[in-house]
């Protein structure tokens, strides 16, 4: 009762998805702060190994529902099992990935339980809350922090009166970290009732086409990212040369992707991926809030821009004022010289 | 299901009220883009089954009637605006409750289409929540209508890294993404013919609702705090693109084991 629960998604290989491991890391912090248990729910088929892989992330109990009807994910079977589990266990907090699965399932669960749900949180904290209208004081409420209104404002949302408090978080926003390799948890089997039959029939999957993920910049240590200021798809090739030289991955802003300079998988920002490399080189990027949201936690930032007043420069460690098409080749030459 | 939304690309300083709700009066409005895609998918069902009737429902201030008129001009048969000060401050839970109560008043509904999410909130919650309240299956992230019969619908939907084709029994609710087909244009003949037709307005009294589940009162999520985005200024070293400066920078980065 009153624990922190993470709904865990499975990858195509039947392992726990990265987003869910990130949520377990965050969930561990919240559970420690609240002095309660961290629990996870794994719903799928043949998922014992996946469930046990959660222990080093600090998960104390894993609720496991193992049934072929739960894989691949479909809304109603997962809804049926998870909503019953939450009603029985009454966690105080439930976290979901803001993925195509989490954003499908979490709102239906929240509607059924008549509790609050905040989408796409970028920070989760525990703190007190005073209701300005009723004057009522609440301890240890989940602060659900998210950008709103096209990134123009940051809102803190609370659900003081209803339980559980539910939030979704996008992949890459929270950090995935091992808690303790020796941490021991336990599996608690969840009986999947025959009632699943009704939920099973309503929607059938006829076929699935999984695309091999060709481009993955999430884990890159160094990123060379281009914005609209790169000017063209041809100029973007220079970034690839630069990236090859210094062992980096190529990222992009939404404007560059929309202009057709490069692939959508490279998009960094609120509607793309969130990255935190040790070095981020922003080339021809002005630095809209939505883009900065996806890269401002980079350890070091270099901005190359003709505009000395570009907003990105405010968060850059180094700003090089100049045209990317001349500065990058110059920098590449200097780098090669220094390696010798 | 459609929503008239503030155009978030043009947000002014007066866009938010002191209580953290949106000051809708201060913003230009548009037909939520994914709801237009949803309308097109509904009209394609009607193309295949001419007996089908397409009704647009929306919740908002009286001027939300504009999108119902727009939808009619594009091919919808009629529409209803759910408008009442008692809905003010509704979060997605209270909104989905009000809309589901309205849908129950409309008689037999086989298919409900809506945009995946609205550009002013990006939550993507109302669709699945209406489906739950009506106890019908949901198909989210729809990209293409593949087939429809009076008993079931086949949809191609987007996953994280791929797509899947699903067949759902009716009644069902479908949420549509921006990858779906664009909506057809308003038809000049329809515009002329329908110009004087009033849009039906409905308030909280006519949807058989529990008043405690509407508006701010029926909303478990509360806005605690709103902050404007402030840029944390770092000490930025500004370099001119000279060979000496770039040389020094690359040497420093190599020395610090960053490069």
Features of this protein?
A: 340 residues, alpha/beta, Rossmann fold, 2 domains, 7-stranded parallel sheet, 5-stranded parallel sheet, 9 helices, 28% helix, globular, B: alpha/beta, 5-stranded mixed sheet, 27% helix
Verbal overview:
The complex is a heterodimer of chains A (340) and B (259). With 340 residues, chain A is an alpha/beta fold. Chain A folds into two domains: 4-202, HUPs (Rossmann fold); 222-339, Rossmann fold, CATH 3.40.50. Chain A has helices at 18-34, 48-52, 75-89, 102-113, 196-202, 233-246, 254-258, 289-292, 324-339, and strands spanning 4-8, 38-44, 61-66, 93-97, 117-121, 123-130, 137-148, 153-158, 165-169, 186-189, 203-210, 222-226, 249-252, 279-283, 301-305, 318-321. In chain A, strands 5-9-4-1-2-3-10 form a seven-stranded parallel beta sheet, sandwiched between helices. A five-stranded parallel beta sheet of chain A has the order 13-12-14-15-16. Chain A has a three-stranded antiparallel beta sheet with strand order 6-7-8. In chain A, strand 14, helix 8 and strand 15 (301-305) form a beta-alpha-beta unit. Chain A is globular. Chain A starts with a strand and ends with a helix. By secondary structure, chain B is an alpha/beta fold. Chain B has one domain (4-218): Rossmann fold, CATH 3.40.50.620. Chain B is built from six helices and twelve strands. Chain B has helices at residues 33-48, 65-74, 92-105, 126-134, 188-194, 243-255; strands at residues 4-6, 29-31, 55-59, 78-82, 111-115, 138-148, 152-159, 162-169, 172-176, 200-202, 222-228, 237-239. Chain B has a five-stranded mixed beta sheet. In chain B, a hairpin with a 2-residue loop joins strand 7 and strand 8 (162-169). Chain B is globular. The termini of chain B are far apart. The model of chain B has no long low-confidence stretch (mean pLDDT 91). The chains are: A alpha/beta (340), B alpha/beta (259). The interface between A and B is large, with 89 and 77 residues. Strand 16 (318-321) of chain A pairs parallel with strand 12 (237-239) of chain B.
